[in-house]
Design a protein that fits this description.
Elements lengths: L2 E3 L4 E2 H9 L5 H8 L9 H11 L2
Antiparallel strand pairs: 1-2
Amino acid sequence: MSVVCGCFDVSEEEIRAAVRNGATTVEAVGEATSAGTGCGGCQSQIQDIIDEETK
């Protein structure tokens, strides 16, 4: 899988797993994985993944 968060080297699969485990906001994904908590540039991508996983 591809890296979504370059600041913390967090993969798309790690983010999807966090969402499946209940992290349904960008902030919650950040708490679970650190993704999106560095520069913040990947937050829209994280939101897209959340939207896909919670359909």
